[in-house]
Amino acid sequence: MRFVLLPGNRYDTIGVAPLIEGVEFGALLGDKAFDANWIVEELNQRGAKVVISQMPQRISPIDIDLEMYKWRHLIENFFCKLKEFKRIAMRACKTDQSFVALIQLCSAVINSR
Q1: Based on the domain organization, do 12 and 35 belong to the same domain?
Q2: Which candidate, 47, 40, 51, places its Cα nearest to that of 16?
Q3: Residues 45, 88: one domain?
Q4: How wide is the angle at C-alpha 91 spanned by C-alphas 73 and 12, nearest 5°?
Q5: How many domains does the chain have?
Q6: Distance from C-alpha of 102 to C-alpha of 85, rounded to nearest angstrom
Q7: What torsion, rounded to 10 degrees, do the Cα atoms 102, 91, 71, 51 define?
Q8: DSSP string spanning the chain?
Q9: Is-contact 78 84, C-beta < 8 A?
Q10: Do 52 and 103 belong to one domain?
Q11: pLDDT digit string (tens) for 49-67?
Q12: What is the phi-psi region of residue 91: left when phi exceeds 0, alpha when psi lies from -120 to 50, beta otherwise?
């Protein structure tokens, strides 16, 4: 598991570049927040499938694998399980470092079930 902790007032797309740097993968599943031209271009250069729900304003829609897109529910389910931990849901940690550590600990607990 990899993640980048971002301020709440920033776009999610700014965290994509550091996460995919140096990682090989066959597809990127994402919601409309990740429908950015630079992400699509980066995925095309890597030869990875683009499985991102698209904004209605996109001039030329991209064909996506709808069966693969259905797998996104696994990611959404993980975030729901993560938010069951009260301190994460309320962001009760005082520092970013302790919040990151708590996310990693809770993720390990979820994956060990």
Answers
A1: yes
A2: 40
A3: no
A4: 50
A5: 2
A6: 10
A7: -110
A8: -------TTS-GGGGHHHHHTT---SEEEE-GGG--HHHHHHHHHHT-EEEEPPPTT-SSPPP--HHHHTTHHHHHHHHHHHTTSHHHHHT--SSHHHHHHHHHHHHHHHHH-
A9: no
A10: no
A11: 999 988 888 888 888 888 9
A12: left
Q: What pLDDT was estimated at residue 30?
A: 87
pLDDT at 92: 76
Domain shared by 54 and 87, yes or no: no
More confident residue, 19 or 88: 19
> Is the dihedral angle over the CA atoms 57, 43, 11, 99 positive or is it negative?
positive
Query: Which structural domain range is residue 5 located in?
Result: 1-65
Mean predicted confidence (pLDDT) in 88-109: 86
Question: Is the distance from CB of 49 to CB of 26 less than 8 angstroms?
Answer: yes
CA–CA dist 91, 104 (Å, integer): 14
